[in-house]
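Re: [ENG-882] Designed sequences occasionally contain unexpected residues at chain ends

Forwarding the minimal case from QA. Structure tokens:
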């Protein structure tokens, strides 16, 4: 364990499912970030996440409640439209999130990808939450979601990737303290982790980071081996979105406020364009069959369990 937390910071790791949020959470934990009571973490390893999910049970439950209250789910998130605050308040979510965030006055790190699509709720309770945002190539995410036990269609996975990243930029762009990509984290974890620790003014040394990675982390460097990048050309608008997100991530690393502002404005304008919205709607329509199948599976699990 090394590094000192800057007291008072509550930090959330955000990004789409299968984008590397678990690896990132593990790296930051072993870099000295507090993650509340370890017994509450969903650290059970399986074939999909051999080193555990590193998700806070309470955060996951709060996000699931929020999405269900608004008529959505993790696999079909909904936009926070007019009236959402009243519904969430009536469901007791505002007070429960306040209690969750108040469990450690010195601040802590928590991870649940669903937070990405529930940011308006979390930021209403605490506007000062700082975000560490991780992105990953959309085809890689779609492939990973397809290969899971409850597989999503490729169209569903791509739509989910677009929704999660769109929500993060739209609702949390100005709370992002650091940003990286799965590809960069896998290829050069020491450099990427160093950039994140610097953003939080945490002292570190490359030697200690390397030892922590060697002792605690398993990174599958071949996870992108089967990605068909040519397939993304069918979704030119998604390829453009990915390119813009990479530019924002790179702007964080060079610590140029003016450059970051320009790149952030570009991606904000892009996701607000009719071109992006129309393509997102069309992709959602293509994913309808997958939505229905997952709804039937989850409904059956709830009924039987």
């Amino acid at each position: 364990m090394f590094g000192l937390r800057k007291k008072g910071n509550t930090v959330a790791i955000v990004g789409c499912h299968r984008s590397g949020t678990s690896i990132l959470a593990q790296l930051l934990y072993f870099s000295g970030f507090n993650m509340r009571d370890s017994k509450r973490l969903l650290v059970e390893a399986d074939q999909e996440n051999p080193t555990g999910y590193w998700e806070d049970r309470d955060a996951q439950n709060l996000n699931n409640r929020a999405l269900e209250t608004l008529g959505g789910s993790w696999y079909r998130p909904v936009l926070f439209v007019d009236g959402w605050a009243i519904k969430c308040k009536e469901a007791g979510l505002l007070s429960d999130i306040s209690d969750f965030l108040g469990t450690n006055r010195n601040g802590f790190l928590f991870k649940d990808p669903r937070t990405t699509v529930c940011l308006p709720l979390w930021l209403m309770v605490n506007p000062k939450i700082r975000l560490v945002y991780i992105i990953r190539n959309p085809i890689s995410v779609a492939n990973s979601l397809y290969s899971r036990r409850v597989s999503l269609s490729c169209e569903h996975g791509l739509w989910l990737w677009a929704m999660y990243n769109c929500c993060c930029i739209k609702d949390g762009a100005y709370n992002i303290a650091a940003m990286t990509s799965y590809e960069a984290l896998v290829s050069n974890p020491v450099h990427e982790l160093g950039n994140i620790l610097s953003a939080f003014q945490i002292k570190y040394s490359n030697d200690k980071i390397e030892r922590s990675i060697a002792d605690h982390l398993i990174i599958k460097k071949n996870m992108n081996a089967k990605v068909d990048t040519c397939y993304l050309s069918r979704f030119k608008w998604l390829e453009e979105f990915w390119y813009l997100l990479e530019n924002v991530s790179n702007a964080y690393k060079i610590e140029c406020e003016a450059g970051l502002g320009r790149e952030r404005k570009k991606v904000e304008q892009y996701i607000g364009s009719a071109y992006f919205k129309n393509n997102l709607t069309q992709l959602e329509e293509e994913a309808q069959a997958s939505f229905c199948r997952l709804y039937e599976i989850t409904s059956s699990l709830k009924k039987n369990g």
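QA comment: On inspection the terminal residues look reasonable. The beta strands are 11-14, 109-111, 130-135, 176-181. Proposing we downgrade this to a documentation issue.
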